[in-house]
């Protein structure tokens, strides 16, 4: 028998090389493919390539973490979690990504564990931020406060963290809130309008005669800056302090409505405690308006006006209810009464003008003069000037309406009602291309909101 030229070990080595080398080549090719995809922000391809490479190159433990990070960037959170769980250890970025993947999938216990594990290894601000999110989801305000305080110790220039901490302190420790809010405003001017609202409320609350009323004032301000969850917490705290505070109950009902709940029980409780509170009556009127029960809303506003006959706001609310009920003559009388009660206040003249223009009635003799009166008191206010332009349109003065509305848009190009009224003016003049352009602008700039929806309806009506 002729002996082989190749010894057995050499043959085995050749066979193994023939098998392993292509696997190695494929594995490293997948890594290069993943890195190229990452550069192109093609995270799905990157994740898939890292997974294939990890399976081909089992000693490269880091590839499972890389796959998880890529998948998390693609918002493929469940896959990302599965990849992270196969990684023997994680970097700071990996722990953060894993925590956020658990958070967005609603696994709060796992998210908290991931953030705490990461924090024990890497004392980074992002882990405190993640823990704050978990505690906020659970509405554990003291725990969120502690996490944010830890975060701002590490990340002192994070404006949002200071702002959020200020909001929490407004409820938990009002005397300390203003410091954080003002710091947030100094770090980022975008927070200034909300901070000024809260600053005024905190100063006003300090003048209130008791802690329950102080908390109601703070809760209302939190609602104004659109944090109704914390607003509800403030009203609940006001009730804990004084369960007989009718306005706290009424505002709690309003906060619940803003959060998608009913709020009727709280409003009924408020009425039982104080039938003479105009705040209770007004918030109940708002509730019935939302329910489409305009007669009941009208009754509440009439009672409020009986308690405060000199307050024009109740007359305006009465007028709105009459309008919804189709009683335009009573609505007109109420709007006129509101303007008479506050003859130097442009708001009520503007509301009177808008009512006439919107309903196409009494425009010449009442609406247009009211709009002109409003502009005398507020010559630079875009909503007032828009009401004047709309009144000119309703009275058939198309050229003057066009010029007035163009002036409004020049002052504030994102005041969408003026664009809609200008489109209506162009339609009345036969300028269909110009009208179309105005409506398309509003449709695209105010997506999903009232004016954008109106623009869509008008486009369907006039440009089918």
Task: Bin the helical content.
Answer: over 70%
Q: Indicate the mean pLDDT.
A: 93
- Alpha-beta classification: mainly alpha
Q: Quote the CATH topology of the domain at 345-464.
A: Serine Threonine Protein Phosphatase 5, Tetratricopeptide repeat
Strand count, sense and barrel status of the largest sheet are:
none
CATH superfamily of the domain at 345-464: Tetratricopeptide repeat domain
Ends distance: 92 Å
Brief characterization of the structure:
The protein is mostly helical. It is built from 26 helices and no strands.
Model description:
This protein has 464 residues and is an all-alpha fold. It has a domain at 345-464: Tetratricopeptide repeat domain (Serine Threonine Protein Phosphatase 5, Tetratricopeptide repeat), CATH 1.25.40.10. Helix content is 79%, strand content 0%. It contains 26 helices and no strands. It has helices at residues 8-39, 43-56, 62-73, 77-86, 92-104, 108-121, 125-137, 141-154, 159-172, 174-187, 192-205, 211-224, 228-241, 246-258, 264-273, 278-290, 294-307, 312-324, 328-341, 346-359, 363-377, 382-394, 398-411, 416-429, 432-445, 450-462. Helix 5 runs antiparallel to helix 6 (108-121), helix 20 (346-359) runs parallel beside helix 22 and helix 23 (398-411) packs antiparallel against helix 24. The protein starts with 7 loop residues before the first helix and ends with a helix. The model is unreliable at 13-19 (pLDDT under 50).
Record the SSE blueprint.
Elements: H1 8-39, H2 43-56, H3 62-73, H4 77-86, H5 92-104, H6 108-121, H7 125-137, H8 141-154, H9 159-172, H10 174-187, H11 192-205, H12 211-224, H13 228-241, H14 246-258, H15 264-273, H16 278-290, H17 294-307, H18 312-324, H19 328-341, H20 346-359, H21 363-377, H22 382-394, H23 398-411, H24 416-429, H25 432-445, H26 450-462
Helix pairs in contact: 1-2, 2-3, 3-4, 3-5, 4-5, 5-6, 5-7, 6-7, 7-8, 8-9, 9-10, 10-11, 11-12, 12-13, 12-14, 13-14, 14-15, 14-16, 15-16, 16-17, 17-18, 18-19, 19-20, 20-21, 20-22, 21-22, 22-23, 22-24, 23-24, 24-25, 25-26
């Amino acid at each position: 028998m002729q002996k082989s030229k190749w010894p057995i070990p050499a043959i085995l080595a050749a066979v193994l090389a023939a098998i392993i080398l292509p696997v190695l080549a494929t594995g490293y090719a997948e890594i290069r493919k993943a890195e190229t995809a990452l550069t192109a922000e093609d995270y799905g391809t990157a994740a898939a390539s890292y997974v294939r490479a990890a399976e081909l190159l089992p000693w490269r433990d880091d590839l499972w973490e890389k796959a998880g990070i890529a998948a998390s960037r693609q918002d493929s959170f469940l896959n990302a979690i599965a990849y992270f769980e196969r990684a023997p250890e994680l970097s700071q970025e990996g722990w953060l990504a894993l925590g956020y993947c658990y958070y967005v999938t609603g696994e709060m216990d796992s998210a908290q564990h991931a953030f705490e594990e990461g924090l024990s290894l890497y004392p980074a601000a992002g882990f405190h931020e993640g823990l704050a999110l978990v505690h906020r989801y659970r509405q554990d305000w003291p725990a969120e406060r502690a996490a944010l305080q830890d975060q701002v110790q590490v990340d002192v220039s994070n404006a949002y963290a200071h702002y959020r901490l200020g909001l929490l302190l407004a409820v938990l420790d009002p005397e300390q809130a203003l410091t954080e809010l003002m710091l947030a405003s100094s770090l980022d001017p975008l927070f200034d309008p909300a901070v000024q609202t809260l600053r005024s409320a905190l100063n006003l609350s300090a003048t209130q005669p008791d802690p329950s009323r102080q908390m109601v004032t703070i809760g209302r301000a939190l609602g104004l800056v659109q944090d109704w969850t914390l607003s509800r917490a403030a009203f609940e705290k006001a009730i804990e302090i004084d369960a007989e505070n009718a306005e706290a109950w009424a505002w709690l009902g309003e906060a619940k409505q803003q959060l998608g709940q009913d709020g009727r029980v709280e409003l009924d409780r408020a009425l039982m405690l104080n039938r003479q509170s105009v705040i209770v009556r007004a918030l109940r009127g708002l509730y019935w308006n939302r329910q489409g029960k305009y007669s009941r809303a009208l009754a509440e506003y009439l009672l409020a006006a009986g308690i405060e006959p000199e307050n024009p706001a109740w007359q305006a609310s009465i007028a709105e209810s009459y309008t919804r009920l189709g009683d335009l003559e009573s609505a007109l009388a109420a709007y006129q009464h509101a303007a008479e009660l506050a003859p130097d206040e442009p708001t009520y003249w503007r509301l009177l003008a808008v009512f006439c223009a919107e309903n196409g009635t009494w425009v010449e003799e009442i609406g247009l003069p009211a709009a002109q009166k409003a502009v005398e008191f507020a010559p630079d206010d875009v909503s007032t000037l828009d009401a004047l332009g709309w009144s000119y349109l309703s009275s058939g003065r198309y050229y003057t309406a066009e010029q007035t509305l163009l002036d409004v848009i020049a002052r504030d190009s994102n005041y969408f009602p003026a664009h809609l009224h200008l489109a209506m003016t162009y339609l009345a003049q036969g300028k269909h291309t110009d009208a179309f352009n105005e409506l398309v602008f509003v449709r695209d700039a105010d997506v999903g909101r009232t004016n954008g929806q109106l623009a869509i309806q008008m486009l369907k009506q006039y440009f089918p």
